[in-house]
């Protein structure tokens, strides 16, 4: 028996209503139900940050949240960056920075890095190197050694500052986000974990969500709705291709 729930997500300014199983992860809803494959999956365990998106202005690892938990949220993915006001109809300064400062090689981590970079600059338009490194500490890159990524974010900060000066204002005040919520540069916060842990999918022995210690053990538990699956997780375990 499939118990699907209807949820509404506003992604990059467009509202979508989709039906998802309660255990469907947000990253799978974004990639497979909405066909926005710019958000990558690297580990599916909350370690790599490739799946980072902004939810109501806060960076979250979308493999650590059920899609139903994001019902009613505003989501920003890498596909929406060029439509942001600070992009001016072209590449967002962060995207430009990654191009100019060679902040990517294979590019697999780049969408997540861009989203974390945006969260950093939303919170603090003039971060120093240590603050940038702290802000991207939840994002792993296997290629660049991070220095060029830091330089890319610094480039974007300078560009945004120049733009703000030219406009006679400030693009983003410290501590504010253009999507309204207080950003947090740690996408795997205690609050996020608490939120996931508090989630109840409705199954009698719900594990409490993907962030809980007993990850997915409920699949093999006594609930016969899951016994039918013969222990197979309904999660996409196929190899990801670079998008
Ligand atoms: S896919 Fe690695 S943290 Fe989500
Ligand atoms: S550019 Fe390849 S993983 Fe970061």
UniProtKB/TrEMBL annotation:
Matches recorded under PANTHER family: OXIDOREDUCTASE WITH IRON-SULFUR SUBUNIT
Nuclease in keyword set: no
Annotated CDD domains: fer2 (cd00207)
Positions of the UniProt region annotated as Disordered: 167-192, 212-243
UniProt GO molecular function: 2 iron, 2 sulfur cluster binding; metal ion binding; oxidoreductase activity
Segments of skewed composition (Basic and acidic residues): 215-243
Pfam (any one): Fer2
Limits of the 2Fe-2S ferredoxin-type domain: 5-81
Protein name, UniProt field: (2Fe-2S)-binding protein
Entry keyword set: 2Fe-2S, Iron, Iron-sulfur, Metal-binding, Oxidoreductase
UniProt feature, compositional bias: Acidic residues: 175-187
């Amino acid at each position: 028996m499939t118990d699907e729930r209807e949820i509404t997500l506003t992604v990059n300014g467009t509202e979508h209503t989709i039906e998802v199983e309660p255990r469907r992860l947000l990253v799978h809803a974004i990639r497979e139900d909405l066909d926005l494959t710019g958000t990558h999956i690297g580990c599916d365990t909350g370690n790599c940050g490739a799946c980072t998106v902004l939810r109501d202005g806060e960076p979250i690892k979308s493999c650590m949240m059920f899609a139903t938990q994001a019902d009613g949220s505003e989501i920003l993915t890498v596909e929406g960056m060029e439509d942001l006001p600070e992009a001016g109809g072209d590449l967002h300064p962060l995207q430009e920075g990654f191009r100019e400062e060679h902040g990517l090689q294979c590019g697999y981590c780049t969408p997540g890095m861009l989203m974390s970079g945006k969260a950093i600059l939303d919170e603090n338009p003039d971060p120093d190197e240590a603050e940038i490194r702290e802000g991207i500490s939840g994002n792993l890159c296997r290629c660049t050694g991070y220095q060029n990524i830091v330089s890319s974010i610094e480039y974007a900060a300078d560009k945004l500052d120049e733009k703000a000066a030219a406009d006679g204002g400030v693009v983003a005040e410290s501590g504010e986000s253009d999507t309204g919520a207080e950003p947090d540069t740690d996408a795997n916060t205690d609050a996020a974990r608490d939120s996931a842990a508090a989630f109840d999918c409705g199954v009698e022995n719900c594990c409490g969500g993907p962030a809980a210690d007993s990850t997915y053990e409920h699949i093999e538990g006594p609930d016969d709705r899951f016994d039918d699956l013969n222990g197979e997780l309904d999660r996409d375990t196929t190899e990801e291709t670079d998008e």
